[in-house]
């Protein structure tokens, strides 16, 4: 048996911010004891929103907004089927006020009819593991004292592999494995039934781990048998007969020996064959980008070599420079995409995506297909992101503008300056089809209601809503098959009014020119004057580069243009 830590819970489930102190192991142990003792009240085996709200706000001192964020984020990991997501969006959009919304939210996580289906008994335990792995982004005081945790001006630029400790841990599968290895005992103890624990909430050599607990651990761990291409959850592999001697499973008690199970898990855990490390080391290189003269580094784009239905694919692009890159490809469908160190470029990824991370990019525009999970933008300067996504989060950005349609509040984490939010303002022919594929609707839409997550980001002056006077629609300059002909959901009234007034001015101008009675020579002279002014504007705004980069390259590199 070969086991590995799943990428998905860390990549899209762990908030890229240090967790609140009261989400530490000590409080989670108290929480699981409380939940088990109140099973009849909707705490166990399937934690309901009202009970979690009571625990989070009353016991852990979290704000209600943050409590719902964790609860909804966890359920979005489990509820991937688009019809269910669309059904929830419709129900939430129909709520007339806060009270009705709370009633609707109370249905999320409620016990399903028909009792405990197989694996469902571990919902509360899975949620505890989800809260536990938020610690992956905890800043370690010890490591910061020896210089490994905090970035400094003298620190070398981290590589794309993210080996620096200050890099994005959500992407680094080596960090995921190290985290699970170092916290495995704690996590197993968290899943134990009360009678298997000492008074100080620790395991003994004779403690037994229930099958239900191993089902919960399948939230984080999966694997294969004998290098099979079929990926299976941990609880199925743990029940495989040849493993019973090693993991201590007893058919009589339907439970595992704590020390044997822990030892078996440690010995079988290996590098994720579908993770970022494997993708960078042995992934398939994609010739999507041109190699631009004057660029100091070569553009690199890679994707997983091995793709299986149970695991989302991965696409990583780095150092795309001064060009337009446009793709709508099967390689991108349902992929986790990482865009790293791209400068002065226009990148169009017009396929339904699973998640997108944009890091250390400058002076660029990103137009993305609908994103089922999350878009995270980190350490970027002067970028525009145009996307329909389930969730947007940003940290350490400066002068960035987000044109978004999203059913959740955008998350403003730490270190942001001069952030602008605007309504989603474009379309392409397959957009609504792609939205349906990932379960995203036009309502509810919280583009204008960001949530300030970190205390240091509590200053609301870090963001603004783009003034309607600065708002222009965006045209995607590519022909595709499809039925979408306008921006899904339309535009807010103030922005539509600003566009209409601008169109009216153009019509008045055209009428004035028409009625001016210019001679043929005057018209020609006037046209040259307008074209010269337009050309000056193109150069001043940087739009000249965008237009030039849309011209197809030489025949030999046509495939790069996509």
Descriptors:
TBCC domain-containing protein 1, alpha/beta, TBCC1, disordered C terminus, 3 domains, 21 strands, cytoplasm, about 550 residues
Structure description:
The chain has 562 residues and is an alpha/beta fold. It has three domains: 193 residues, no CATH class; 216 residues, Pectate Lyase C-like (3 Solenoid); 43 residues. The protein is 35% helix and 16% strand. It has 19 helices and 21 strands. The strands form three sheets. It has a 15-stranded mixed beta sheet that branches. It has a three-stranded antiparallel beta sheet with strand order 1-3-4. Strand 5 and strand 6 form a beta hairpin. Helix 3 crosses helix 4. The longest helix is centred in the C-terminal third of the chain and has 22 residues. It is elongated and about 100 Å long. The two termini are 41 Å apart. The C terminus is likely disordered. Pfam families: TBCC. InterPro entries: C-CAP_CF_C-like (IPR017901), CAP/MinC_C (IPR016098), CAP_C_sf (IPR036223), CARP_motif (IPR006599), TBCC1 (IPR039589), Tubulin-bd_cofactor_C_dom (IPR012945). Belongs to the TBCC family. Keywords: Cytoplasm, Cytoskeleton. This is TBCC domain-containing protein 1.
